[in-house]
Amino acid sequence: MTTAVATGMQELLEELVVAHRPRGPVGSVPASIPHLGRVEPTSFGIAVATVGGDVYAAGDSDVPFSIQSISKVFSLALALRQDSANTLWRRVLREPSGTAFNSLVQLEAESGIPRNPFINAGALVVTDVLQEQRGDARGQVLAFVQALSGSSEPAIDGAAAAGELERSSRNLALANFLADFGNLRCDVRQVVEHYVGHCSITMSCRDLARAGTFLADGGRVGPWAGEPWSALTAEQTRRINSIMLTCGLYDAAGEFAYRVGLPGKSGVGGGIMAVAPGRGTVCVWSPGLDAKGNSVAGAAALADLSSHLGWSVF
Amino acid sequence: MTTAVATGMQELLEELVVAHRPRGPVGSVPASIPHLGRVEPTSFGIAVATVGGDVYAAGDSDVPFSIQSISKVFSLALALRQDSANTLWRRVLREPSGTAFNSLVQLEAESGIPRNPFINAGALVVTDVLQEQRGDARGQVLAFVQALSGSSEPAIDGAAAAGELERSSRNLALANFLADFGNLRCDVRQVVEHYVGHCSITMSCRDLARAGTFLADGGRVGPWAGEPWSALTAEQTRRINSIMLTCGLYDAAGEFAYRVGLPGKSGVGGGIMAVAPGRGTVCVWSPGLDAKGNSVAGAAALADLSSHLGWSVF
Amino acid sequence: MTTAVATGMQELLEELVVAHRPRGPVGSVPASIPHLGRVEPTSFGIAVATVGGDVYAAGDSDVPFSIQSISKVFSLALALRQDSANTLWRRVLREPSGTAFNSLVQLEAESGIPRNPFINAGALVVTDVLQEQRGDARGQVLAFVQALSGSSEPAIDGAAAAGELERSSRNLALANFLADFGNLRCDVRQVVEHYVGHCSITMSCRDLARAGTFLADGGRVGPWAGEPWSALTAEQTRRINSIMLTCGLYDAAGEFAYRVGLPGKSGVGGGIMAVAPGRGTVCVWSPGLDAKGNSVAGAAALADLSSHLGWSVF
Amino acid sequence: MTTAVATGMQELLEELVVAHRPRGPVGSVPASIPHLGRVEPTSFGIAVATVGGDVYAAGDSDVPFSIQSISKVFSLALALRQDSANTLWRRVLREPSGTAFNSLVQLEAESGIPRNPFINAGALVVTDVLQEQRGDARGQVLAFVQALSGSSEPAIDGAAAAGELERSSRNLALANFLADFGNLRCDVRQVVEHYVGHCSITMSCRDLARAGTFLADGGRVGPWAGEPWSALTAEQTRRINSIMLTCGLYDAAGEFAYRVGLPGKSGVGGGIMAVAPGRGTVCVWSPGLDAKGNSVAGAAALADLSSHLGWSVF
């Protein structure tokens, strides 16, 4: 990458911070997760990590935040990586859900097989798979994102996890329901605990962007992850990207596909990770959420970035 | 009651035993409750307790069996009796459910308010109310049926309850779901335990018929229950009877209303209790179930009895 | 019936008129059926026809009103009467629906077999059966209620029917959906026309009460219907009564069963017909509806009447 | 394009024909559309039209077939093109449906607003919009595909349309249901007729590929469409592509996104049109369908083609 381009990217990110950092509270923060309400509402960070190994960052890009559902991408990748018996896709489908992300109706209609790994039911099954594969699902996911980002900073926010666990009735309902259909095999309470645990991982935009570049590069990790290795095969990477594009933004997947045109995954912590295949991975963070649970400023900034760079796949 | 009538009733019950006792296994027993599978499949008992204080019984009428969902009638009656603040009907509706008895769909659509107290979700709420009112819901229901039947024989089958608790994923899902909507207030696991506990009460047909006569007599208990007292007001009794008639037989309430024409409540243990207002209460038991979860021989015998005596309310 | 009793009944009805006739508009009238909005809101009529052949009436008991869904009872009775091949119950179930009366969801889930003959889908199937049996379903139902009431006054309000037909998109949707499942066999549009037609029959409380006594008397019609004949067998009558009790009041069947304790059928024209088996049939009419679509004043008056006479079956 | 590349593409298509043309009947053909059953089961055609104006074709690429739901792409594009008041997106959403393509449940839950323009309900609304805009929706769509492909061969198969109309109960149900919610404004029967009409357009792979290149080229039509013009803006094109990717393959959108990695739209006539943004448009046709309603051989061939050319967007 020439200096000119590098400068261009850095300038673009700085401009996006100026354009999109909220001047005050926007949207809402989830009432059910108290610690998320304590974040400074004008926070805004953005980082791009390219497949060439460059990292650009601006705004609050080094502030750790709760990655929440973005952890579903990494837990899925890890479960696939370890799925030597190739059984994961028998326990969770890969189709858009078309309903609120935590609905039980679909699950009942389809005999306990979640529509995709990004709705809560699907992510609980993936966590159960990790727990079955090697135990300590939460710890596995943490070690994985640390390795992928070449950083020891990603950590589990224990107090946050404990607070969320107390408000996990819906997830406990889902998990028991899955167990009733035989699609949860480890201890139900433990699976929910580990699920909430890996959702409570805190990471900065910079580290998340670095951790996600394998999705933009056919499975190959970035230079920050040590000696070259592949987290997944190119085929597995395509699989995850296609699921992100069709199911990654809760009930706004279609809208995001249009506005941003990239596979993405959001979390109610205000983060969004987007993948530009062959180019790099972007992470943006700002805590105020829209009615569908996605970062207001984050989605707008990604749309701008994608438009400026011509990165939309459409 | 004249001797002639008494003889007539006794003879009728004997004839019903001859006509309806299965010659071998009929229907099915619930796979999810192992101890129910160990019951002798040709068991058949029947008892009638009149508002006049007479009791007639035939067949295996003194054999204790698992009353299962029939306990929902007694836990509801007890919760109403103790509902001085009159809040129960804000937490559970009184309308037919029109879906399988353990569906989560309706609950989601109606924000955690179960359609009636006889579907599992509703019975869990009732158990939660008892637990809130005086603690030890299971023990309260047991003491209540002992008092109503004037018998110390009703007991909780601890081993059966423990076995069912292990297979209670669906009920734990329901209970956590209710808790998520704020409609379960005590500890979720404890509520399910007490719910399974009072479903595991064992009683004979004779004791169940005696315990249920207050429903046929405007709330007044039978002479076997000691000094005259009223378990409920006449109005509360009518309320329970109307719910039994519209919702007491799972997804076969309409069919039972037609064939038997009496308020009734069945359990997957093979028991059915039916109430003939102003006349008396009938209990029949035979373990083989039809596809809807109701005793095959029991429902047939009740239809015969109702027809012979002209007891149908229609 | 002694004069004393007769006087008692007549006085009771007069008192009910005084107590329940609205002083002004109460509840609502259906926006989708314009002609119903033109009825005087303080209208209130009541009539009782006994199995002994006496008729008592008070208030606006001779004013014809639109019977709307009450016609479903008569079309069902007629279809059963003519169902020599005994195929009706293969095409419609007899269980409570537990959802709004015009929902398509249940129909889709259960492959086009309506839950009961009183939800719109079920009534369309019954109309199709009549149309198949002898053609001119609308005319058949009219002739039937004229014969049952011994009156030539029941008539089809053609202008009202035409107005309703124009707003029948939902019924056309239901009918086409049933046809798609093979459960509607005559011309779809014609079936809806005849359905709307028999719902647009106008009758007075007096005539409706007289027409309905066969349901209280094992199928036998009243003396006003000419030479003694039976509209249905006693068994068929019980069948209809049990369906009325579990499904006759839209989504308030449970509440009505408790408050009134009698099989009943309401219509959005403000009429309610209730059956006291062995005693007689009551018809009450007042146009203001509650949120569930049942006459506010009518339901209250029936509860009072049932309570005064001790007619509740519970 | 150099001759070498051209040769490469042509050879690839020839190889795909050899590899994927069925040797006999595979999958199924829709029972509800009789004329589709008369197509030769071993038919297989494929064509690619590039944004540079080249067209490659192999197999039965000049045989006209029933485009069925692929017409939904063109009717949507045309409605958008003419939507000067910008009201279309108030009447139909743009999110994946996650249920069978003709379900009524979602529609009821969301008050008559279809989830996206490619499920039948959504396509009926789009047809209604066309009918409102300029009348003769069917004729408009036909003229549009003729103009886009620069060919007069696309035609409406009147006999097929008439046959389908006779079996359109489900679509009539949907359309009446939409009308009931006020989301269908023209005559219901006429809308269904025009909808079935434009679904009955027959086109060859070659013409379809040519007609679809505007989607790969920011809205610009190919040279075969006469003087340069734009069918849509680049933004509108991206919108349609993102909807195709998330909703274009019925309930297999996720699977197709993974296997092929391109926006696509299938029809039960066995055709699939796929768009490679910036490159070109592919059309493949083979009549045997899988359980989700997509061409078995067609989807396999597209996966191969995408893989060989590296055209997946992921």
TrEMBL record, chains A, B, C, D:
Complex formation: Homotetramer.
NCBIfam families tied to this protein: Gln_ase, PRK00971.1-2
UniProt cross-references to InterPro entries, sorted A to Z: Beta-lactam/transpept-like (IPR012338), Glutaminase (IPR015868)
Record-linked HAMAP family: Glutaminase
Organism encoding this protein: Sinomonas flava
SUPFAM superfamilies on file: beta-lactamase/transpeptidase-like
EC number annotated for this UniProt entry: 3.5.1.2
Catalytic activity: L-glutamine + H2O = L-glutamate + NH4(+)
Hydrolase among keywords: yes
Pfam families associated with the record: Glutaminase (PF04960)
Top-tier EC class: hydrolase
Superkingdom of this protein's organism: Bacteria
Protein name: Glutaminase
Secretion signal span: none
UniProt KW Secreted keyword: no
Family label: Belongs to the glutaminase family.
Keyword set, alphabetical order: Acetylation, Hydrolase
